[in-house]
Amino acid sequence: MKRKQAAAGTTQRPLMIAITGASGSGKTTLCRELARALDGLHFSLDHYYRDLSHLPVEQRAASNFDDPAMLETDLLTEHLASISRGEAIKRPIYDFNTHSRVHGQTETIGPRAVILVEGLFAYSYAEIRPYFHFSIFVDAPDSLCFDRRLRRDVEERGRTPESVRQQYENTVRPCGLAFVRPLADLMDLVIDGSDALDYKVEAVVAALARRRLIWAAKEENQAQR
User: What is the CATH number of domain 15-224?
Assistant: First the structure.
């Protein structure tokens, strides 16, 4: 069963999948692997954090990045609407080291048959939910989430272990409990983030196949080549 076309004479709308879960749950790793398996695009919401370059560096670092209000939802909604129509966008580039966007630079994202929208708030905003055909929540114990977050922030973002621990206790975990974990009840599929990666990918692919979504996406991929 193929998905309906957007309109006569236009290309088929892409299959759009939301992937969310607590920080450190493993959603980014799963998304990247699914993008390879489905020949899709990993669309990270990290690029849509608000530009804080107008603030002093100390104030930027003290901001609560685990609050859904920190994303520029108007731009995100506009871009997802364009992508859902098969149109290219110019996505901002965000620098986590400076908590600001790289001014004068964007990344052109072209149409793809499968778009995997991943981030803490991938299913938090009512205005973007209608664009998704399927949604996935990656769940994991707090201890595992913290260990993964600690390793990432120290190795990739130059943070000190103490600063990571303080942020996790003050904002990451409380906001995760308030804004992210309740989304699990709304999702099409809940995945255990502590499972092996290949098992998680197989579970998602099987769920998409049951919905007859993955076959339509593969047919569209082949048609575009």
Answer: 3.40.50.300
